[in-house]
Design brief:
The complex is a heterodimer of chains A (about 110) and B (about 110). By secondary structure, chain A is mainly β. Chain A has strands at about 5, 10-15, 20-25, 30-40, 45-50, 55-60, 60-65, 70-75, 85-95, 100, 105-110. In chain A, the strands form 2 sheets. In chain A, strands 2, 4, 5, 9, 10 and 11 form a 6-stranded mixed β-sheet that branches. A 5-stranded antiparallel β-sheet of chain A has the order 1-3-8-7-6, with no helix packed on it. In chain A, a hairpin with a 6-residue loop joins β9 (about 85-95) and β10 (about 100). The termini of chain A are far apart. The model of chain A has no long low-confidence stretch (mean pLDDT about 95). In chain B, a hairpin with a 6-residue loop joins β9 (about 90-95) and β10 (about 100-105). The model of chain B has no long low-confidence stretch (mean pLDDT about 95). Chain B is globular, with a radius of gyration of 13 Å. In chain B, strands 2, 4, 5, 6, 9, 10 and 11 form a 7-stranded mixed β-sheet that branches. Chain B has about 110 residues and is an all-beta fold. The chains are: A mainly beta (about 110), B mainly beta (about 110). Chains A and B meet through β4, β5 and β10 of A and β4, β5 and β10 of B.
């Protein structure tokens, strides 16, 4: 069963707009929540990550918002650019674990 | 420092043949993971290895699939007697710590 549920499956946004991807989890032992970006024909690459002790982390145009009580976290891409068009995966890992559990992915298309 | 190297990039096999996928981790990384990716299903964990040891193979089918990470040389994912359902992209990732994963570009396996 999918330990991390991701939505939407795909989204289209205009250049300069905001892309928002949401993920939810059940396992309260998860303590590491990364986001990966994947371009066609390439492997996923780490974009940004957060731990539950903070509610938000920002790196450039990418921001993770984390809601521990709701067991949800989201990725916001501000001022979206055509070069951001890719598939984004959320993931989670527990302190007792050594493998990442991935969401199903969101394909983001940024129209110029 | 070269990234994670996977070969071949594309592999075509007929049903019943064997597929061998190779992965050379980044220098200094002792943790190796194999993931399988199917369209709209995200990345599914298969196996986690350290040098000469299989740590967790809970995501790998018990039959026909095996993995190794010898003391010298690349990690190998072997699929015996391939079937059409094995067609997928297989990604290898390495890590120095079991947290931040660095992915290769994957091997696309097609079974005819």
């Amino acid at each position: 069963q999918q330990q991390v549920k991701q939505s939407p499956q795909s989204l289209i946004v205009q250049k300069g707009g905001i892309s928002i991807i949401n993920c939810a989890y059940e396992n309260t032992a998860f303590d590491y929540f990364p986001w990966y970006q994947q371009f066609p024909g390439k492997g996923p690459a780490l974009l940004i990550a957060i731990r539950p002790d903070v509610s938000e982390k920002k790196e450039g145009r990418f921001t993770i918002s984390f809601n521990k009580s709701a067991k949800q976290f989201s990725l916001h891409i501000m001022d979206s650019q055509p070069g951001d068009s890719a598939t984004y995966f959320c993931a989670a890992k527990g302190v007792w674990d050594y493998k990442l559990s991935f969401g199903a992915g969101t394909t983001v298309t940024v129209r110029a | 420092n070269a990234g994670v190297m996977q070969n071949p990039r594309h592999l075509v096999r007929r049903r019943g043949q064997e597929a061998r996928l190779r992965c050379s981790p980044m220098k200094g990384h002792s943790h190796v993971y194999w993931y399988r990716q199917l369209p709209e299903e995200g990345l599914k964990f298969m196996v986690y290895l350290q040098k000469e040891n299989i740590i967790d193979e809970s995501g790998m089918p018990k039959e026909r699939f095996s993995a190794e990470f010898p003391k010298e040389g690349p990690s190998i994912l072997r699929i015996q007697q391939v079937v059409r359902g094995d067609s997928a992209a297989y990604f290898c990732a390495s890590s120095p710590t079991s947290e931040k994963l660095f992915f290769g570009s994957g091997t696309q396996l097609s079974v005819l």
